[in-house]
Design a protein that fits this description.
mainly beta; Jelly Rolls; Methylamine Dehydrogenase, Chain H; 2 domains; 6-stranded antiparallel β-sheet; 4-stranded antiparallel β-sheet; 42 strands; elongated
Amino acid sequence: MYTDLILPPGQYRNGTDMQSAGRWRDGNLVRWHEGTMQPVGGWRQRTEFEGKCRGCVAWRDEIRERRIAAGTAGALKVSTGGGVVYDITPAGLVAGLVDARLNTGFGGGYFGSGTYGNARPDNGNYTEATTWSLSAWGEYLLACSVADGKIYQWELDGAVPASQLSNAPVDNLGVFVTAERFVFALGASGDPRQIKWSDREDNTEWTPATTNEAGDYRLETNGQIMCATAVPGQTLILTDREAFRAEYLGPPFVHGFERVGSACGAISRQAVASVGSQAIWMGRNGFFAYLGGGVEPIPSEVSDYVFSDMNMAQASKVAAVANEQFNEVWWFYPSAASVENDRYVSYNYAEGHWSTGEMARTTGADQGAFRYPLWFGSDGFVYDQEVGQITGAEPFAESGPLRMGQGNGVFSATQFIPDEKTQGQVQLTFKSRLYPNGDEAETGPFSAAEPTNIRVTGRQIRLQVEGVANTDWRFGAPSILVQQRGRR
């Protein structure tokens, strides 16, 4: 009899292989959009920034000229819409680290602690990889490197470097411009819990007085401030433990602060993305969303896979980018075998499903000022993303076990009827087993025909769909012809 293979969109990668039965389990460079599997868009090199950029912003000036700025461990650069790159590194910038460091070597722990062959305990000094927070102040750029701590302003002249913002606090962890045009210094003046802000519309006035709205506030937290982002009518501030919201109240208090979530801290300073009316971010072992009321954990069907194989020593490199045209947030992170971002996990917040794969990106900005999303590669280039079709890689998705009947008998599959938008743009491979942990036999690949004659035997069958390179394929709900053969 023919059996429809209707698998829910998204991947399921938690727990054991059998727990993903009837779901898509593995994949790379594919997404499910409006219920249909398809490849993600391609990319093309735009221009070279040199070095690994961690933090960027794209904006337009008052005459609608486009710019994108990004920072590396020791430099700050900006590119025009035409691809001309200017080095605007401030004079005297304190360079930071390309990679995070944990001193658990000589002098970093206690003599005799730990056992041979086991991971060293977390008792050394940790220095995170250097990231930048960048915001547009009108048409000007504000920037702060976590390693340097000063707030800099750049006023659009490519021949003039960014310069230190007058009167602003130093030894900060970041900078953020609110919707009301206050400049927030995060972790200000060496206090990782402190927020200081300038006068409204005057980013050089930082001394509180009855004639201005400058001020400061110290968050009630045992952690440190990581980052801030905008949600409608509020500024969301994330520490490495909690979430706080700041609301503009007007004089005399200016801003009100309230804790809106606990045990939901950000894993890195680039871990959050604002999309529509919400903020979504990655924590140390889960994902969270804030829609203006309180923080809610996001159930994730891939968290086991992501967090069990992440290089936590380099977690400060985790970078979130929004891709609103497909209702997605992507996070790039380093796998356990890598010191650099080499994988991604993406979440479709409109449909509630997840995808994983491999891509080397370090930061990015969504489309808006530019036609396409701009994502920075670990090779130092910025890429136009979602451009045409993928070349040089073959997107694929692989299902978990597909059990015929109750899985207590042996079945033979002899025909497969594909469901494609354009037939012939995917190839099919079948993998079969008699037992969940038994040897797997592979059959194929087959070029999909109608029907596709196959010969696969087992108690469970796994389907792999691989797109033909440089095609914009779609894959829907196919059918398979199976016959029961008995229990052995």
